[in-house]
Amino acid sequence: MEPVIQEGYKFRQDVCIPCYQTNCNAVLRPAAFMDLAQEIAYWAAQALGFGYENLHVHHTAWVLTRMHVRFEEMLRWHQTASLYTWHKGANGLFYLRDFDLKGPDGTTAVRATSSWVVIDERTRHFVRPDELPPSLVLDYPVDHAIEQEAPKVLFPKGVTETEVGEHTVAYSDIDIIGHTNNVRYVVWAMDCLPQEVALQPMKDLYINFNRETTAGETVRLFRLQDGDAWYVEGRVDGKSCFVVKMEF
């Protein structure tokens, strides 16, 4: 990855799509975009004074709670791209960040909006805005990759769900703050789909993170189809950990 470059209030990172981020058709996997977004969000927040290291000294950390990703074009192995991100300020407990991945011709291939909260690393509780460092209280120009904030996602009622397996949280799932990394939930969700569905071009991906999971927990996975949309929910002890909605 190239270092981030600041362009006004936006940050840019230039990438070349590697083979390990693509599927068997050499197309960028949805989870791979989440990986790219997570990394540039770290560098951009750090440059603005509220990154991981800045919060960690106060025993706090960023946690992604919701995301909406819209795929305009599926990028392929070897293609170059430029990923942009920018902070959009806050709405209540949520801090908003958007992303715009432009393909080699400069047109948008993927756009996304995300909502984040800050937690106390010791108690795992939300931290109120008035308890946060002053560097988080910043004004930014209003610009949108997707104007509406990432929505709440629920399993549709009246549609039969199917239990499709379970996953025990393991070494490769855990991130730097000690819980399952957000990208892993997308990987689990995609693995729950029929192969012929997962390989179709995705239009929109919505995900809500409802409860953190940690090493050793077993997550039961449920799937249902509602029209062109597929849903996957993970539950521990009957409580929702995450819900993903995928439209093809």
How are the SSEs ordered, and which strands pair?
Blueprint: E1 5-7, E2 10-16, H1 30-47, H2 52-56, E3 60-71, E4 80-91, E5 94-102, E6 108-120, E7 162-168, H3 182-191, H4 195-198, E8 204-209, E9 218-226, E10 229-236, E11 239-247
Antiparallel strand pairs: 1-2, 2-4, 3-6, 3-8, 4-5, 5-6, 7-9, 8-11, 9-10, 10-11
Helix pairs in contact: 1-3
Count every beta strand, where a strand is a DSSP E run of 2 or more residues: 11
Distance between the termini: 29 Å
Sheet with the most strands? 11 strands, antiparallel
Number of helices: 4
What oligomeric state do these chains adopt? single chain
| Helix-strand string | EEHHEEEEEHHEEEE
Percent in strands: 35-45%
Shape designation:
globular
pLDDT averaged residue by residue: 93
Rg, alpha carbons: 18 Å
Strand ordering within the main sheet: 1-2-4-5-6-3-8-11-10-9-7
Q: Which secondary-structure class do the elements indicate?
A: mainly beta
Helix percentage range? 10-25%
| Spans where pLDDT lies below 50 across 5 or more residues | none
